Amino acid sequence: MPIYRIAIGTPRDASHPDAIRAALAEFFSMLIFVFAGEGSGMAFSKIPKLSYCFILILDKCLSLISLNLVHNSPYLSLILFIFTRQVKMVISKTEFVDFFVCFLDKLTDNGSTTPAGLVAASLAHAFALFVAVSVGANISGGHVNPAVTFGAFIGGNITLLRGILYWIAQLLGSVVACLLLKFATGGLETSAFSLSSGVSPWNAVVFEIVMTFGLVYTVYATAVDPKKGNVGTIAPIAIGFIVGANILAGGAFDGASMNPAVSFGPAVVSWTWTHQWVYWLGPLIGAAIAAIVYDNIFIGNNAHEPLPNNDF
Asked: TM segments (predicted)?
């Protein structure tokens, strides 16, 4: 059974310069991810005020596109010019601007509990995680998640001591990102994860187990499996996609954390610890199950090639 490869490690695993660099990479990757993901939710309260700017930017962009096409395609330019004039006429109507602002206000009311809020959160987290994993992949393996680190530990791909170092860096990165958001937004609250009405803590635990299972299973299939081949090149985007999809599935129920660090940072800054255990227990169980299943069934004893320490 491949789980026997679990290793405690030596103090060198947590003190070697490569390990320190890897931890720093995890810190910055987590900071990037949480700042964008948590910030996208906080930005909802500002969208109505920014809608006027959006309309003006749209107007300018249409004008520039029309001018740039004059020499290349006169007919297309003429059509776009007429369309641009019509848009400008509509924009100039105060009624439309007021309607647009009210529309956005209704659309973004209550943040991520609305369909638009879920889509925005899904896209922001998917894009940010894609980048965060990509920038850390060559240094630390791009875990950006204590649950992923735990799954790697269960599969024997990282020692316990180095995993703890990663955890510390990831949790600090999340807290610092939330502190920066609180300061940059003039004191807006970094909302902690919470359960929706009608969702019990154990309902949420099941959600987190299943969603994190999908995430860590994807990590194993695209990044850890020694037979991954060219699939490894799409690992960051695949990981981002599964997180985005899971947010659409579970975001309205428990926030769809899948990442203990992501829920830890806002909880520290807002000092809200209600049901915080849900966002640790569920992801860690889901990660362990995914690691055991993939490692035993698809990698096995003969095919296993542990990643070198400079990767994980």
From this structure: 20-38, 116-139, 160-184, 204-223, 235-257, 277-294
